[in-house]
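U., I forgot to send this yesterday:
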Amino acid sequence: MSRHFGWIVTLIVLGILLLLVMVQVDRQWQRMAAMQNMMSEQARDLRALRRSLQSLESDLASGRFTTGDGERAPRVAEVPSAFERAAEAAGREDYAEGDWLVQAFGTGLATITPYVSSDAYAADVQNYVLESLVQRHPETLEWQGLLAASWDFDDSGQELSFQLRPGLQFSDGEPLTAEDVEFTFNFLMTDAIAVPRARAFLEKVEKVEAADERTVVFTFEEPYFDALRVAGGLNVLPKHFYERYLDEPETFNESRGILLGSGPYRLEDPTGWTPDAGRIELERNPRYWGPVEPSFDRLVWRVIQNDSARLTTFRNRDIDVYGARPREYARLRDDEALRERADTHEYMSPTAGYSYIGWNQKRDGEPTRFADPRVRRAMSYLTDVDRLIEQVMLGYAERAISPFSPRSDQHNPDLDYIPFDVERALELLAEAGYSEKNRDGVLVNEEGEPFSFDLVYFQDNEDTRRIALFLRDLYARAGVHMRPQPTEWSVMLEKISRQDFDAITLGWTSGVEVDIYQMFHSSQTVSGGDNFINYENPELDAVIEAARGEVDEDKRMEHWREAERILVEDQPYTFLMRRQTLAFIDRRIQNLEQTALGLNLGFVPVEIYVPFDQQRYGQ
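Result:
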């Protein structure tokens, strides 16, 4: 018996020793893999440095390097204009690198894969990872080169050539060349890659060709007013990283976190992010090509969907930015504890987007009641936007008449907002066949079908919930039965993609000059497109096409104003409001300022920083 027991003990000991050896071997393999990866990255860095030095030597010898306006640069290149503001911030006396910028998203993100994602939150993240050829100056709004050193059109106005800067590289150390720009276009135009929004954006581009390593040429089908924004604003994807998905497009189309670029920050694992992480973290790109290093070591976004929880997290100093709702803003502004550690920022962004109710005009292949413009106009007459702004937004918003800002040259000043007018609404509904009410007081058509519909809205936004309930009661008084349908964000995205809803309330971001092709042109009613309300109007299509093809600004604005007139008449959306930003930002964050593009909190190149003695993380 004792002999058997001895054997058992011996076997157990041997098993434990074997397990320990296996763990040790596994650790050694992990260390070796990490060292191999580090050595591989260093080798790539050395190759990239050698290429950069050779390229720079060639440029200095030939005088090839030029500024963004086409002027020949001095042999010792100055800081490119895109980096001047960041360089100025870096020269301030209290400037320091380090610390984290921690923010919160009010919804969970379904995906951060470029061009597959469609929401503004994903765009915020990608803004730090991906880069375009040009971008607008925050004050003058003039175009300035980012990846591109210079650009010019040919005499026909249809060919736009970009000269890339020397020494560009992606965050994995591979060089960024004109071939990557060409690849990005071809990748997005591949039918198997499910990016209809991107294809609509690039529709006017006939082809993109790399003339040499640093010269890329965009050829347009015809002269196009927005050619520089379309071509120069293309976020460049690394060919060596994304080309594998041409062989497995479904992997890309259904992905959640495939993100790698040339920007100042990167994902630690460019294929490893998933929505269940509950947060997104970007680390400083150690190989960033730009002449000014980004200030923060890390950028973090936490997903906190509950408004109260987000405020509590901000009070506890676990996030640096809090966007307040109007009802709490005045109260929080007088909160002594918050005043001591946070600055308030109350403003209407010059490029503020707008909120709206979209009326789906075709469902399951059949027209809905909202296909009738009289019904859509009636719904706008029944929507008391002024009271919404007063009672829900407490005046921290302005009415939206159309996709165009009232301060934009695209806006037609002769147009009036649709007023709240129940009597006119009922007249239009009667013309459309809704002249009687049933026993429940709901309008019915000649077939006895009640005017009843669901309004889909994001369930975790308190202001939107209050708006939906306000409208439910308002519509009910006129005999229209609206059922508020609070919905998770991921489910909303699915409904939009399938065009599976009656009506939906959402918002669009805006810009300096808004191209409304993607939202309102008939060709964009395809699944996954941005005209997910199935709105079709051949007259508007023709005006949009005329505007997009007009390079003369005065004539183009005439077309946009005509397009606005049609939209106001047709009401594919009930346009609601443009909201003011009401933000509290941790006072340790320095160099915050208002620009012609809004607050510079999220600008890239990064202009804000935290002085060393106020830093919280990484010390």
